[in-house]
Amino acid sequence: MSQDADPIHDVPDGLPRLIEVMRRLRDPDAGCPWDIEQDFASIAPYTIEEAYEVADAIERESWDELEGELGDLLLQVVYHAQMAKEDGRFDFDSIARRIAAKMIDRHPHVFGTESRDKTPEQQTRDWETAKAAEREKAGRTGLLDDIALGLPALLRAVKLQKRAARVGFDWPDATHVLDKIAEECTELTAARDSLDQAHLTEEMGDLLFVMANLARHLGIDPEAALRGANAKFTRRFAHIEAELAKTGRTPADSDLAEMDALWDAAKALEKRP
């Protein structure tokens, strides 16, 4: 069938066509078998993955790639909206209406009568006040109740700490956090010597949680910092592979001493002006 004869191309371009594409993919009689069998739980990991790929494209300033990644992320929203529509829960239009209403309500200095003469910090405080009121209205009275369980653990740790810090439950400065890190390292070593895997896992979690807290006190996004470290490791290990390949070898044919030397060489190359 030619493009001109395909009814999908009669649908207006942009969002209406994307929504119709998803409707047809999920059509129980003529859709895609893989798409038809998916549900919210099976699609959720893809949604998280696509959000991270958007962040990755931004970090690399790959703007053409970002356009495609944003499309992939938008598809995830459309996917969830279509499944919800099939269940009679909500649809894409109701999602859009709800978020638009929230943005209008949360920005009375833009859409209402409040003065726009406020700092970004004041707006952040006002935003949190509005969220607290919404939590209370929904019956979630605990300060941490609405911090999603499904967030990546490192990101959720920072959110938990930020929220608790707003009511004064926080160390006064990074020095105290560093002291706590030393304490947790000691406890982790003791747990390692005890050979109790459950205890070791618990202490490792405590150390990671405090490391996230240190990043917050230093004004560092720990997710971004770890992504940078991952990229650096990948880059330097690729140098090791490339150097070994010059002699027809792979890392499996080398040893730690040689690979350490090649790692140091890659590190030195990165420091050159």
From TrEMBL:
- Give the UniProt family note: Belongs to the nucleoside triphosphate pyrophosphohydrolase family.
* NCBIfam families in UniProt: mazG, PRK09562.1
Positions of the NTP pyrophosphohydrolase MazG-like domain: 38-111, 177-239
Q: Name one GO molecular function term.
A: ATP diphosphatase activity
Q: Which reactions are catalysed by this chain?
A: ATP + H2O = AMP + diphosphate + H(+)
- Keywords, alphabetical: Hydrolase
Q: Which organism is it from?
A: Kangsaoukella pontilimi
PANTHER family given in the database record = NUCLEOSIDE TRIPHOSPHATE PYROPHOSPHOHYDROLASE
Protein name per Swiss-Prot or TrEMBL: Nucleoside triphosphate pyrophosphohydrolase
Superkingdom of the source species:
Bacteria
Give the EC number: 3.6.1.8
Please, one GO biological process term?
A: dATP catabolic process
